[in-house]
Structure formats: C-alpha cells, structure tokens
Amino acid sequence: MSQITCIGAGYVGGPTMAMLALHCPEHNFTVVDINEERIQRWSSDNLPIYEPGLLEVVQQARGRNLFFSNDIPTAIQQADIIFVAVNTPTKAFGEGAGKAADLQYWEKTARDILTHARQPEVIVVEKSTLPVRTAEAMSRILSSGSSHSQFSVVSNPEFLAEGTAIPDLQEPDRVLVGGEENVFGRRAARTIADLYGHWIVKDRILLTNVWSSELSKLVANAMLAQRISSINSISALCERTQANIGEISRAIGMDRRIGPHFLQASIGFGGSCFRKDILHLSYLCEYYGLPEVADYWASVVRINEFQTDRFFKNILKQQFNTLAGKKITLFGFAFKPDTGDTRDSPAISLCRKLLSEHAQVRVHDPRAREETEHDLASMEGDIAFVEDPYEAAYGAHAVALVTQWQQYRDLDYGHILENMMRPAYLFDGRNHLDHQYLFNLGYNVFPLGSAPLTHL
Ligand code: UDX
Ligand code: ADP
Fold it and tell me: 62 by DSSP, 3-state: which?
C-alpha cells in the first residue's frame, strides 16, 4: 500500500485522483490545496467543478481511500508518491510576459516537497502542463539542500478534456509516463505505469523519456488548436465566397488521413490549455533560436483572436455600426459545453469588445453562473448575468450564441422572437442551431462560414 498525495485540487488533480482512487483501492489518496473552500467543497456533494459523472466516482472512493485536506505538510510527509497538479498560468509580468509559463506556484510546491518529505524514496509526478525541461528544474530543486528523501521526477501529462473528463480518464487514448534515464527513474516510471495498469491495457501506456513526455503534451494541444484555427481561417474565406464551412469540414474530415475531429468552426477556442500551451511552445522555440517555428505556432493564436474579433465586427456591422445602448444577449459563457469553466473563454473578449461600444450586455449560461459572475465583475459597463434565457433575451437587438449547450437547441425561439427588437438578429458562433428554421420564424441569421439568411 502506498500513500499518494496530490498537490492541487483543480480540474486536473481532483478528477484524476478520484479515478485513480476508484481503481486502486489498496492505495490511499490525499488531495491537498491551499484553497480551503475548494477542499471543503470536494468533501461535500457540491463539488467545486462541474463535470458529468464526477460526483458518482468521488462518492465511491471518498472516505474509503480518497481524502481531501488543507494540511499540505502532513500529506507531503506521509507520501511515497506526490502528484503535482497546481496551476501554471502564463506569466503576466517581466521576461516572457504573455508567453512563458508562470512557474511560481509550481516552484513553491517543489520547495514544499523538499522541506516536508520524509519517506526514504519519493516519486514526484508532474501533472501540470509545464514547459519542457521543467522536470529537470524540479530535480535540481529537490536535490538541493539536505532532505530525508531521495526523489525521482516522473512526467505524466494529463490529456483529459473538460466535460468528458470521466470517460477520458476511464478510457484514455494513451497514458504517457516519462522517466529519468537511470535505474531509480525507470523503476519510478514503472510504478506510476502500474497504477494506470489497474484499468488501462498495457499497450496504451507509453514509457518515454521525460522531455518527450513533456513536449508531447504541448504538441498535442498545439496540433488540436492548429486544426481549429485552420478551419476557422477557412470559415472567413467561406463567408466571402459561396462555400459552406460545414460542407467543407465534412468533405475533408472523410479523408482518413485528416479525420473528422476538431474541424468544427467556432467563435474561437478557449480553455485553460490551448492558448497557454501554444504560447509556451512558441516561447520555447524562440528561446532555442527558432524564430520561424515560434512564429508559425504563434499564428495559431493570432487566427483565434482574429476569429473572435471577426464575430464581434459582424455584430457591429449588422447593427449599422452602432451598439450604444443596444441590448445584446449572449447564450453561453463557458469555453465549451458541459463544463462550468470560463477560463480564456472567447465570451470574455467578446463581452469586452461589446462593452467598448457601450452595448448593454446580458449573459446567460446554464452551468457557469458563479464563474461568469466572477469574470463580469472585472468588466466596466452595463453587463449582467441573467438566470433565465428568455428574460436575458427580452428586448434584445441581437442574440449571440457563444457556447453550444444542448439546452440552447431546445428553447422556444418563437417566444424569444416575440419579445425581441426588430429586425431581430441571431449570430450563431458555433453553428449549433437550425438556421433555416430560425430564418423561417423571422430571424436574420448569421452563421459562421456560410451565407447569412436575412429578410433585410
Ligand atoms: C484540451 C485538450 O483537448 C485536452 O487533451 C487537454 O488535456 C486540455 O486541453 P479542453 O480545453 O478541456 O481540452 O477542451 P477541448 O475539447 O479540447 O476544446 C478546447 C476549445 O476548442 C473549446 O473552446 C472548444 O469549443 C474549441 N473547439 C473544439 C472548437 O472550436 N472546434 C472544434 O472542432 C473543437
Ligand atoms: P488545472 O486546470 O491545471 O487543474 P486549477 O486552477 O483548476 O488548474 O487547479 C490548480 C489548483 O492548485 C488550485 O486549486 C490552486 O489553489 C492549487 N494550488 C496552487 N498553488 C498551490 C500550492 N503551492 N499548494 C497547494 N495547492 C496549490
């Protein structure tokens, strides 16, 4: 039996430890965090994150071999294995600001481990997305000073996507475990691989060196984001010509070499990973003297910003270039459906742009109320969260769909239209709704990447 501690009870640490605890009943898992409220909520049925199926998994293991605590020193002292799942945002200041990873939380964790670890051999597992060679830096911190423990650092990046975290953890495409190239390192990597081996078939668990594992995570996210920017760039071309982006996605996706996933045109990608990871990758390339490669990846983020801006400018243009005092309603604020997470959501920059034109902005989201209200509090202007979608759209000049929640397909759009200003506009930032039906009802519909359907 091992004592396994996870530092960081967020979107990565919480679900991953819950799944490990479920499948490895002989080991004890303690998830710690500096945030007391988060820990209290993990210990209740009002979990701090919304993730379909998560509560059921937590309930099966909690109190048996899954525990949540704020006592970080004790959890480190007892640990044979320590997962590090603290946040690594983009640096907001100094050298590399806006691009490099801000490693202050991560470094504090490394120093906490060095101070408190007591077991003779401790495996430290990197879960946070980190720039490559961070494991090496972690090793350096851990071998500085006199510790009771001998450490081995393993990279085990997390590939779960929000909204599908539970199926992604239950049946991952692959699990990557990167170990240091020495006897202790290889043994440590095998120990971590064996944990996953409780429910995942062997040939899906890849053992690599530490750097390949770290870089694979950045590259996987960069490649996924690059597909979205590619299709979004073509959606702009479609709007200038007679082509339809849905037809193009379908046609190219049927090519087995391309495949159908991540070809859905959108107002732009969001979330805590894509933008941050591409900027890390780009910064890394710059650092290693590869400006052309750095610029190639940075362009994926530029196209993403262009896409959100294009969506906004279209709303402005259709409203005769004046939004002052006009009510614009956003359906959805989370960066994707089935999550309450709003980090880096395109809704944030869209709201800011609308407010800069003095629009009156009303926002609805079925799950992300708390997070949305937190984000709106930092914005200046006439903006508010409204709990009921019909009320949010009451008297609106335009509705903009930002997140493709299923619920938005099931609304009574005839009823919404009755209470909207005329002409009524609907901008579908996800091509989620039935455009012909809405047009027939009387809306002027603006899809992404195809001709608008208007009565004007
Ligand atoms: C991503 C990776 O998928 C996951 O492997 C990694 O561990 C973390 O980052 P996540 O950010 O949770 O996961 O969501 P994802 O489903 O990848 O979507 C990211 C963004 O891209 C969302 O805003 C989504 O709406 C957008 N997207 C996705 C598109 O705009 N079009 C698509 O076709 C797919
Ligand atoms: P992710 O999406 O990567 O899981 P989150 O922000 O959801 O990121 O979670 C990271 C968690 O790590 C937060 O709950 C934060 O409070 C916690 N955290 C940050 N620094 C430390 C630290 N030094 N010790 C313990 N927990 C930390």
Answer: strand
